[in-house]
Amino acid sequence: AASAVPGYSPGFKKPPAMLRLKRKRLRRSEPPAAAAPPPCGAAPRAPSAPARRNPFSSLDNAPRAAGTPQPRERGRRPPPPAGESPAAAAFWQLLEPVCEDKPSRRTEPSERTNILAPTDDLHLPVAVPEVPSSPRHEFPADWSIKTRLLFMSSQPFTWAEHLKAQEEAQGFAQHCRATETNLPQSVQEPKLSTELRCAFQQSLVYWLHPSLPWLQLFPRIGADRKIAGKASPWSQDEALQQVLMSDWSVSFTSLYNLLKAKLCPYFYICTYQFTVLFRAAGLAGSDVITAVISPTTRGLREAMRHEGIEFSLPLVEDSRTRKQKNSEVNLETEVANSLEVGNSMEDGEEPAPSDDDDDESFSWLEEMGVQDKVKKPDAISIKLRKEKHEVQVDHKPESLALVKGTNTFTLLNFLINCKSLVAVAGPQAGLPPTLLSPVAFRGGTMQTLKARSINAKARVRLAYEDISSLEIVGPVMPHSLHSLTTLLKSAQRGAFSAVLYTHEPTAVFNADLDNASPALNKETVCKDLPTCGLHPKTLDQLSQCPTLGKSSIRFLEMKDYAYTWKS
């Protein structure tokens, strides 16, 4: 009856039968020595088969030949870096971070010396580089925005807990009046110091626009998942979108006017695609107002050129300069290679086409008589081929654009009228960009960073030690980072460490853009900056030329009132 069924194959075997047949074939193919009975007391061995590499295994857990040294176990906790206390390293196992950003680069497990993040954090592990900086009394300016700070110290942070209503109000008043707070080198009783607690509240304040309490408005790049599902009545209401953008334009213009008058040191514009940093004249070693945009695309740069905005791509130009210098150094080698290429061409070989060939003439097609059979590339294709190197940096840190001087005002009008500044679809549709500023501006809302202290015990060798930590969450701008470290310097008696979580798209703002003018008179340029609302020491730090390159500070440590950092 089974043979009458159409499509029935009498030779078909079910999976268990196939497995039994396979094992039988393996036993038949074994040599006679392999069939010898095992010694008494030994467990029976499975039939040997040629070792197959698991295609899903990594290099670390792949089968290794005998005698090959085994890699370090993943579960083994790496030792703390040189100069760091074992208690600090053990304390990381006890904390659960609030992760905001995914780092743009990772190191191989075999190269890691210490991971300053909990082992259960799969989103933002912070690898500490091996080479720290030399101890200094001040750390360089970090123009990136931090999403989270985690301070650690053997001294408690109880002075930062449960501020009284009067202390909180005094801190707000000191911020609005730009009051300078100068603490002694060491505060004997931090918990009883009203001046310290008020200054702490003052350092947590920042200004934001727009203010929508049910939405997290920073970061904006990659924030669709966090905003999705939240109420957004403007997404389908064009009239409401126009009202929001009109209000945003007023706030943006107010910030620029404050910046031009040196009453605001800097501010950020955070869109869903890119971030803009406006800096006043005198900051970051520049004698004029500057604006840096990152990341950019070819379409955005073309639109800026169309509006008459003069800008440069300093990181791309720097790369070209380095390549030119390398070519000059290796000139003799290139000459020798060119001679070899010439000889090979004489033998009948054709030279490779050059990417920089600007010859647009196709007269040679007419000479061959095939001008009608071959499709000529249009002008757009030729232009794209010429701009290939510029297009390759789109969405990368190297695409950073620098606008200087009066062109920043043209950039202001461009951004106000730019249609691509606001998303037209998705969770952020119709939502204006986020404005972040250290000082008050028209339409801005006062906000504070979230702070909480944690006390825990960490096992060090055979004993437990008390470790205290202070966590700061929110958009931490450069002035807040400097103010907080200055306070901790006095409150923690010159001994603390910190892990800094960076919003990665803003790390490139630390690149040296060659803004410094040879005839720059620092006293003249910075004459009016003291009225911008920042502490003189913070202002002095931010006026220095950036030195961190395209990276940012990831780990900061103070010992004996001297800083070391790792980026």
UniProtKB/TrEMBL annotation:
GO CC, any one term: nucleus
Cellular localization per UniProt: Nucleus
Biological process per Gene Ontology, one example term: nuclear DNA replication
Keyword Transmembrane helix listed: no
Compositionally biased region (Low complexity): 42-58
Compositional bias ranges of the Acidic residues kind: 346-361
Alphabetical UniProt keywords: Developmental protein, Nucleus
Residue ranges, annotated region (Disordered): 1-86, 338-361
Predominant location: nucleus
Family: Belongs to the DONSON family.
Name this polypeptide is given: DONS protein
